[in-house]
Amino acid sequence: MPGGHTRTSMPPKPAVDKSWELVQSKTFTKWVNARLSEHSLASLNNVCTDFSDGTALIHLLQIISDTSLGRYNRNPRMRIQKIENVNLSLDFIRSRKINLTNIGAEDIVDSNHKLILGMIWTIILRFTIEDINEEGLSAMDGLLLWCQRKTAPYKEVDVKNFSYSWQDGLAFCALIHRHRPDLLDYYALDKRDARGNTALAFEVAERYLGIPQLLDVEDVCDATKPDERSVMTYVAQYFHAFSSLSRAETAGRRLGKFTDVMQSVFDMQHDYEVRVAKLISRIDDQQSKWRTAKFEPVYSSARTHSTTFNSYKATTKREWTHEKVELDTLLGNIQTKRVTYNLAPFVPRAGLTPKDLEFAWNELAAAEVKHRKTINQYIRESRDVLQRQYGSEANGIQGVLNSISNSLAMLGGELDDQLATVNGLINKARPLEGSLQRLGDLEKQCEEANIDEHDYTVYSVSDLEYDTEMMMKALDKKARFIENQSAVRNMTNLTPAQLEEFEATFRYFDRDDSNVLNDVEFRAALDSLGHSFTDDEFGALYDQLSCGSEYISFEVYIRFMVELTEDQTTPEQLLQSFRVIAGDKEYVTQEDLRLSELSPPSITYLARAMPKSELSDDGYDYLAYLRDVFQ
After folding, report:
1. Is the distance from CB of 284 to CB of 360 less than 8 angstroms?
2. Is residue 282 within 8 Å of residue 359, measured between CB atoms?
3. Which of 77, 247, 487, 612 is deepest in the core (most CB within 10 A)?
4. Per-residue b or e along 550-569, where b marks 16 or more CB atoms closer than 10 Å to that residue's CB
């Protein structure tokens, strides 16, 4: 239009979300009705409209404050009467230093939803939430902290606010389970069923805990953002319900504690008298034992008394000392408790008083000193006796060893006579084992008696044990030497070199100096001398020579070697055997010997006995070896 103004269209304003108003209205109405029902007053349909005449608001304030507001219009008909009632309520609220902003009596009479809901929230805060205290935090912060602490053990629950944190219903279930696990099995819940969990918590809380269901399931689970004030109002009921439960339990514990204390006073007094009587009795018994103890001038006896007394000091006496201290403490605790509860002091029965116990304790100390002196006297006397016994035994052993040594050095005559003499010396030396055992026992006693040096001998147990061992070995070797010489003295059909070779072979494989060979040692000896047998042949031969025993003696071995040499073994046969093993070489190696299936001990023996070959670095001169053996 010429000269006119162009009109521009404005976008429409977005609709204001007032879902919170509906939720708060339902929640606050249920909260108010729960309070009114405590005095059997009629329920409201909607707090936003039913507070208009002021009577219901007055009833609510009188109930939650437990204070009368005075006279008011009980059946107001005119607007002025309703305004008077509401003003009475508002004045009362302000007298409690509760700040009400931008709300007057007309707003309530005219049902201003927003302002009425704000006022009720302020009332809820003051009379329901503000008194909550948790670790120094109060009101909303204290309630939030309480929820967080109580639900901390439940990993699926994370309470950060009074809105989104409650939408899956698990926080409600966790609070119930934490305080009353008998009402709800949290761990059996389907954590994905938000509506089911929320409905279950609401039902259990109302049925078993008396918590009114201020919220509907959809107010929490289906809302884009659950209303914080509504959720907080409902959760506060949980806090007060469980706090009341805790207060009842606390009162019961206090009464029970008082009863327990009174019972414990009696038990402590009885315990004190029983324990004092037992301790004094044990002290008397111990002194009686010391008075009747028998002492002998023998170190082992004196030492036993000393050990027993030391054990008593380290165990029994310490137990008694600990018991006495405990009894003194127990008596002090009894008197303290009786003073605490305004009771007369405790007086133990005659004979069980602190003076009676102290007298018995002092008598025990004097008896200990006397008994210790007696023990020390007998220890000093018995030490000298012990040293004399040790010296006599040690010198006696050395005398026997000297006698045997002299007889062995002067040994002479026929082999049979020499063997008889050596066997007699062995029989003479055998009792030394018992003597050394006795000497060892005496040395242990000396060590226990702290005797480091002996006044009656210079011989120690270790010295005499070594000398005796050496003597027994010398006698045994001498006897075997004579026996072996007797076995070979009639073997006139062998050269001395052959007999020496056989004997040296026997000694080499008799590793334990037992003068006998087992089957492994005997076979190794035969292999080293060039006599090989199959397993069956050797088994039959060994059974024949051992006569069913596990060993072959030197005499049997020599006789068999003589027979074997006379019938089979010649230098020519052995030379032929070495040539076969060496593959016609003039030397033989350890590898050749291993390939011939000689036993490892036989190979070791031959490698030690044969000279090195000049024709090979790893070869042995078997020709020189045979010449040396059969020269």
Report:
1. yes
2. no
3. 487
4. eebbbebbbebbbeebeeeb
State the alpha helices, DSSP H only, in 529-570: 535-546, 554-567
Provide the token pair at 624: 């020189």
* Rounded-to-integer distance, Cα 610 and Cα 530, Å: 13
How far lies 141's CA from each of 136, 146, 147, 152, 236, in Å?
Answer: 10, 9, 10, 16, 12
Is 143 within 8 Å of 132 (Cβ atoms)?
yes
Give the Å distances, CA to CA, from 31 to 206, 237, 242: 13, 10, 18
93 closest CA partner among 117, 51, 66, 126: 126
- Assess contact for 193 and 182: CB atoms under 8 A: no
Instruction: Report how far Cα 191 is from the mean position of its chain's Cα atoms.
Output: 39
Question: Which residue reads 């009676």 in tokens?
Answer: 356
Q: Which residue has the tokens 């005997």?
A: 522
The predicted-structure confidence for 159-217, as pLDDT tens digits, reads as follows: 999 999 999 999 999 999 999 999 999 999 999 999 999 999 999 999 999 999 999 99
- Provide the angle, in degrees to the nearest 10, between the axes of the packed helices 622-629 and 496-509: 120
Sequence-ordered strand ranges (E) for 346-393: none
Using alpha carbons, select from 502, 495, 536 the residue that is nearest to residue 522.
502
- Helix and strand tally (H, E) in the chain? 25, 6
Q: pTM (2 decimals)?
A: 0.42
Nearest Cα to Cα of residue 588 among 563, 611, 562, 557: 611
Residue 27 and residue 365: Cα distance in Å, rounded? 82
Q: Map tokens 């023996």 to a residue.
A: 605
Instruction: State the Cα–Cα distance between residues 539 and 418, nearest whole angstrom.
Output: 37
pLDDT single digits (tens) 106-156: 999 999 999 999 999 988 888 888 878 777 777 889 999 999 999 999 999
Identify any residues that bridge with 588 across adjacent strands, giving them in sequence order: 620
Burial tier of 505 (Cβ tally within 10 Å: 0-12, 13-18, 19+): buried
pLDDT in tens, 61-111: 999 988 999 999 999 999 999 999 999 999 999 888 888 888 999 999 999
3-state secondary structure 184-242: CCHHHCCCCCHHHHHHHHHHHHHHHHCCCCCCCHHHHHCCCCCCHHHHHHHHHHHHHHH
* pLDDT tens digits, 453-475: 888 898 888 998 899 888 888 88
Backbone φ and ψ of 134, nearest 5°: -140, 110
Give how far Cα 221 sits from Cα of 192, 217, 234, 350, Å: 12, 6, 15, 77
